Amino acid sequence: MKLIAKPSKENIKTYVPIGLSLVFLSFFDVFTNAFFNYNLMAFLPSQLSYFLPLLLGFFGFYLIRIEFSGVRSLDLLNKNINSNNFNAFLTLLTVFIIIKSIPPLLNWFIFEANFVGDSKDDCTGNGACWVFIKVWFNRFMYGLYPDAEQWRINTAFLILFAVVGISFFVKEKLKKYFILFLIFVYPFLGIELISGGNFGLKYVETAAWGGLSLTFIISAFAILFCFPIGVFLALGRRSSLPAIRYISIGFIELWRGVPLITVLFMSAVMFPMFLPDGTFIDKLIRVLIAITLFEAAYMAEVVRGGLQALPKGQYEAARSLGMGYWKMNLLIILPQALKLVIPGIANTLLALVKDTPLIFVVGLMELAGMIGLAKTNPKWLGMAMEGYVFAGLVFWIICYAMSRYSQNLEKKLSTER
Amino acid sequence: MGKIIELKKVNKWFDKFQVLKDIDLDVAPQEKIVICGPSGSGKSTLIRCINRLEEHQEGNIVVDGTELSESTKNIEKIRAEVGMVFQQFNLFPHLSILDNCTLAPIWVKKLPKKDAEEIAMKNLTRVQIDDQALKFPGQLSGGQQQRAAIARALCMEPKIMLFDEPTSALDPEMIKEVLDVMVDLAKGGMTMIVVTHEMGFAKEVADYMIFMDEGKIVERAKTKDFFESPKNERTKLFLSQIL
Fold it and tell me: What residues in B contact A318, CB-CB < 8 Å?
């Protein structure tokens, strides 16, 4: 005689309520434990009470595992998270871990964190000391850029956002002028504004630039220049002219084979030694060139992947219509190849943005660098956690936005059925 | 009558394998020539040599008075005069059908956009897909795509049209619509060289038939003679298998 009949359609009315309440009880116990520090089953021996939720939930899941019950939600539940004992166990474990980890995180981020005050002494709670971020916020955004001149950075970025924003609403015909402005005029305008030295603006040396604005400046310039260079290298590597092909291969393999940190270091330390006496190239420009060429090599390989994915027929059709090399590539091949490799391009550009903190090796400090500097300030020791969580969050927002944009672009450019 | 295409003793190798052997071929303006033969016999390679998608190693190819060779400067100009239709259509998938048709006239022949669109619509109407002009190639059936490809080639207003097995990649029920367009084109006086296995089409439009095997032209004859009294044993065998 079986003590417990196997769960089936006949006893569904008894077993499902029992099973569901057992599962609920197990979750509830973990929940009260985690959020209110109250153990419902404290009357039991400690080890048993610790594992009881797991046992209860496991048994509950067993009772509700009825195949083809006819109840839609129950079938879905069983199919997705309760198909066998092992999966039920994994489900329980995952839910428990999530429930258990929420309160400490919430506590650290919000409930026990300090928001008001202006020095480390105001941070009395156990949680994060967001006062640190608040006090240093200006530095994290602008680096060592003089306070009185920061409106120039703001203006530069405001112009950028305004132009980009307006370009979304203007007619298709005018759009290309906006794009041309953004590529060929704006970079020089922005740099002029931020660097100063002309038109009565005070000169601010690049060593003072820093923080998030420097992250943006470096990323934007590197992206702007590495893209066309990468495309040319990719075409060069597939060229039928041996000289161009071998130069491209040599360039790509050389830059891909060296770590970025080495490249940056050489650009700052060794490169000036090769320059004739008296010539001086700004450190930031040297770093920009280094990052651009480094990423261009990666970009070239991504683009080459797209070029190789195109059927030979596309080249032949273009040639049979009388197009020469450049017309064929610009009108037929590249539009398709680049569309194919949007995910790869996004990958490379995201990596580029996240590589910018490496410029600390040459003494330039963008967001993460400024945080590294601030946390070593004697008055603010021990703030590494807050700082790097903040940096991580900011980088994540930037990268996620880029990722979403690339996905939208993919959808928009898709001409498939 | 002058010749618009002349091939003399053309030889071509892929590495060590000889694909074309001593090909001699003359085509007069407005002539229609159908090339047939077993697969691997060099038919496609032969017509691809005529617009230099493939390079020949020996012999002379003269197209519309210009010899094709390494040193031909204006190969693009020759290609613009020789339209080509491929087995796999090879439409540009990122452009609408209309843009497919206007791209080369605008960028290669430097036509104003308006004129190019006019020509494109005229040709799309001719192949009866003017109502699909704004769709993308991926939204069209195979037969429609091939007709669009023919229209695209016609938009360059070529003197010669080459067809490389234009119906081989199509479903049987779509073959007719493409062949109808080609027949219409032939009756309009276009110089055509067609590689195909559609013998019905060949009988209807071809002035000459060419049978190729193993890189050689085995038999060249007037269409009627070719089908009724083939001289070569190999041709007889081939015809008995496909007719």
Answer: 92
A198 within some domain: no
**Is-above-0.90 flag for pTM?**
no
Q: Are residues A317 and A360 in the same domain?
A: yes
Q: Which of A316, A415, A417 sits opposite B94 (nearest CB)?
A: A415
Task: Answer yes or no: is pLDDT of A214 > 80.
Answer: yes
Chain A contacts to B (CB-CB under 8 A): 311, 313-314, 316-324, 327, 331-332, 335-336, 339, 413, 415-417
Residues from chain B that touch A311, judged by Cβ atoms under 8 A, are 88, 90
B193 DSSP β-pair partners: B33, B162
Least confident of A148-152, B50-54, B169-173, B196-200: A148-152
Q: Is there a domain that residue A169 lies in?
A: no
Using one digit for the tens of pLDDT, what is the confidence trace for B45-72? 999 999 888 888 888 898 888 888 877 6
Q: Could you tell me which residues are beta bridge partners of residue B26?
A: B6
A322, A323, A339: residue with CB nearest B94: A339
Q: Do A317 and B90 touch (CB under 8 A)?
A: yes
Q: Examine the domain organization and report whether A136 and A65 are in the same domain.
A: no
Supply φ then ψ for residue A273, to 5 degrees: -70, -25
Chain A hits for B94, CB-CB cut-off 8 Å, are: 335-336, 339, 413, 415
Q: Which of B94, B159, B165 to mutate to test the interface with A (most CBs of A within 10 A)?
A: B94
Domain that holds residue A25: 12-111
Confidence (pLDDT) at A236: 94
Query: What is the per-residue burial (b if ≥16 Cβ within 10 Å, else e) of B49-75?
Result: bbbbbbebeebebebbeeebeeeeeeb
- What number is the ipTM of this complex? 0.91
Please name the member of B79, B88, B94 whose beta carbon is closest to the beta carbon of A321: B79
Substitution target in A315, A320, A329, A338 with the highest count of B β-carbons within 10 Å is A320
Domain CATH code at residue A354: 1.10.3720.10
A33 with A141, same domain: the answer is: no
A305/A405 same-domain check? yes
Cβ distance B86 to A316 less than 8 Å, yes or no, reads: yes
List phi, psi (to 5°) of A129.
-105, 85
Instruction: Please report where in the chains the tokens 């305008």 appear, as a residue.
Output: A189
String of b and e for A157-181 (b: at least 16 CB within 10 Å)? beebeeeeeebeeeeeeeeeebeee
- The answer to whether residue A3 scores a pLDDT higher than 70 is no
Tell me the C-alpha distance between A221 and A236, whole Å: 23
All residues at 6 or more sequence positions from B176 whose CB lies less than 8 Å from its CB, including other chains: none
Give the contacts of A267 (CB within 8 A, at least 6 positions apart).
A286, A287, A289, A290, A362
CB contact under 8 A, A331 and B103: yes
Task: Please report residues of B whose CB lies closer than 8 A to that of A340.
Answer: none
Name the residue among B79, B137, B138 with its Cβ closest to that of A320: B79
β-bridge partners, B162: B84, B193
Q: How far apart are CA B196 and CA B179, in angstroms?
A: 11
- Measured in whole angstroms, the distance separating CA B171 from the mean position of its chain's CA atoms is 20
Q: B134: buried, middle or exposed (CB in 10 Å: 19+, 13-18, 0-12)?
A: exposed
Partner residue opposite B93 with nearest CB, options A316, A319, A336 = A336
Q: What is the mean pLDDT of residues A394-411?
A: 90
Strands across the sheet with B216-222, in order? B82-85, B160-164, B191-195, B32-36, B208-213, B216-222
Count of domains for chain A? 2
